């Protein structure tokens, strides 16, 4: 029996996934959580074989949760199930040690097969997404430019970003200007949109 942890902040989606997996004779859902920061504690207590994670969750996104799982409970395989097939997310997922990456539009039997494969140590990847990621340019932003742009996208102004990242306001403005230039954006709002659509934020 393969034990599964489900993490999705949409109750209906999580419930539907649990109901579908309950129909499989060799799969059992041992934990369900709605926040990314609940994934690791739930994994420690329920000891699943596979964690099926949504990307967009409150508290901690699914990719950060996958990284935490890999570091703290490395015997749990992770499969990301997302409604957004962003190539940047795929690359982050691979860096986080995720073994599977499927879209929520995948047929139920494909999800069940994917869980079995990652539990067996194999990789599972939506083929269309793999082709898109192959063609996409690497993220041109540095980690610090990404941090600054992310905070700006959340509505923080330069002095607030400077305080939170322990930088000067001038340095923050320089990072924002560099991000806008690298992304060919009109302004910082446009830069944040471009980076978010690519899965870099």
Order of helices and strands: EHEHEHEHEHEHHHHH
**Count of runs of 4 or more consecutive helical residues:** 10
Shape: elongated
- Radius of gyration over C-alpha positions, nearest whole angstrom: 18 Å
Overall average pLDDT: 90
Structural class: alpha/beta
Distance between the termini: 37 Å
Q: Which sheet architecture does the biggest sheet show?
A: 6 strands, parallel
How does the SSE layout of this entry go?
Elements: E1 2-7, H1 11-22, E2 27-33, H2 39-46, E3 50-53, H3 62-72, E4 77-82, H4 87-95, E5 100-103, H5 108-119, E6 124-125, H6 127-135, H7 143-153, H8 158-165, H9 169-182, H10 188-197
Parallel strand pairs: 1-2, 1-3, 3-4, 4-5, 5-6
Can you give keywords for this protein?
alpha/beta
What do you see in this structure?
With 201 residues, this protein is α/β, with parallel strands linked by helices. It is 52% helix and 14% strand. The protein has ten helices and six strands; from the N terminus they run βαβαβαβαβαβααααα. It has helices spanning 11-22, 39-46, 62-72, 87-95, 108-119, 127-135, 143-153, 158-165, 169-182, 188-197; strands at 2-7, 27-33, 50-53, 77-82, 100-103, 124-125. The chain has a six-stranded parallel β-sheet with strand order 2-1-3-4-5-6, with helices on both faces. Helix 1 (11-22) links the parallel strand 1 and strand 2 (27-33). Helix 7 crosses helix 10. It is elongated, with a radius of gyration of 18 Å. The chain starts with a strand and ends with a helix. The model has no long low-confidence stretch (mean pLDDT 90).
């Amino acid at each position: 029996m393969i034990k599964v942890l489900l993490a999705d902040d949409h109750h209906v989606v999580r419930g539907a996934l649990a109901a579908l997996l309950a129909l499989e004779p060799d799969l059992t859902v041992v934990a369900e959580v709605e926040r990314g920061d609940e994934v690791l504690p739930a994994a420690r207590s329920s000891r699943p074989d596979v964690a099926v994670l949504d990307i967009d969750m409150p508290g901690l996104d699914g990719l950060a949760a996958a990284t935490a799982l890999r570091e703290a409970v490395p015997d749990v395989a992770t499969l990301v199930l997302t409604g957004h097939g962003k190539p940047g997310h795929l690359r982050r997922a691979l860096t986080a040690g995720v073994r599977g990456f499927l879209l929520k539009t995948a047929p139920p039997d494909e999800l069940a097969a994917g869980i079995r494969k990652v539990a067996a140590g194999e990789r599972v990847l939506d083929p269309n997404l793999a082709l898109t990621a192959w063609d996409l340019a690497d993220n041109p932003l540095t980690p610090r430019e990404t941090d600054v742009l992310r905070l700006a996208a959340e509505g923080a102004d330069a002095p607030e970003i400077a305080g939170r990242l322990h930088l000067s306001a001038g340095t923050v403005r320089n990072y924002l200007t560099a991000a806008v230039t690298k992304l060919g954006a009109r302004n910082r709002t446009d830069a944040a949109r471009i980076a978010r659509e690519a899965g870099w934020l």
